[in-house]
Amino acid sequence: MVSIKDFIIYSEVDLRDTFKTESGLELFADKRFSQKLLANREVIVKSMPLDYTGKDITGWQAFIDPTIYFRNNYNHGKGDNLEIPGEKGCYKIQPNMIIAVRKDSNSDWIGFDNNLVVEPIIEKCQEEPKGLIVGVPKTRTKDGYCKVVISNAKLDDVCVGDTVLFNHEYGVDVYLDNKKYLWIRVKDCLAKVV
């Protein structure tokens, strides 16, 4: 099974019944309303597009944008998704929907194409006590600053763990290992903070 422009990926399960929080608590969720949390993002690349000229990643694991699983909401959730008819668990996916790849579960993720995954930097803000009420420390994200979680070879000097400045108006929430990150493009990474 080969496509001209799309990757063919295999996912044993598209939407799970439960998800885990950052603390490890497993919760059940309704698939109609919690698709982003329940989606299986780690899949296997079955075949590559005929017009693709990059490295052969057949058999590798891919970290993907989960919108390929989402069914159209008209017709009570029975609309089409990108599953290949007659091939249970096989989906066609455009190259720009693959966020990262790795050879196996023991390897590190590598940003695919123009993608990288970052974690926003959280800073604590202490409010001044007002009267007898003690201020509780609050946290907020430091706009535009983040730590690289999955790097991309197109950014020469940027490695995992580096702090970068990015265009904070862009970025898509993704979940990896029960933790929320941001998926951004290489062009949105403005500078490395030293």
Radius of gyration from the CA trace? Answer: 19 Å
User: How many strands appear in the DSSP assignment?
Assistant: 14
Count up the helices.
1
Main beta-sheet annotation: 6 strands, antiparallel
Q: Proportion of β residues?
A: 35-45%
Helix-strand pattern, N to C? EEEHEEEEEEEEEEE
Overall 3D form: globular
Strand order of the largest sheet: 6-1-4-5-7-8
Poorly predicted runs are none
Which structural class do the helices and strands define?
Answer: mainly beta
Helix content: under 10%
Distance between the termini: 47 Å
- The average pLDDT score comes to 84
Structure description:
It is a single chain. The strands form three sheets. The chain has a six-stranded antiparallel beta sheet with strand order 6-1-4-5-7-8, with no helix packed on it. It has one helix spanning 35-38; strands at 7-10, 18-20, 26-28, 42-47, 61-64, 90-93, 98-102, 110-111, 115-125, 138-150, 163-166, 172-176, 179-185, 189-192. It contains one helix and 14 strands. With 194 residues, it is an all-beta fold. The mean pLDDT is 84. The protein is 2% helix and 39% strand.
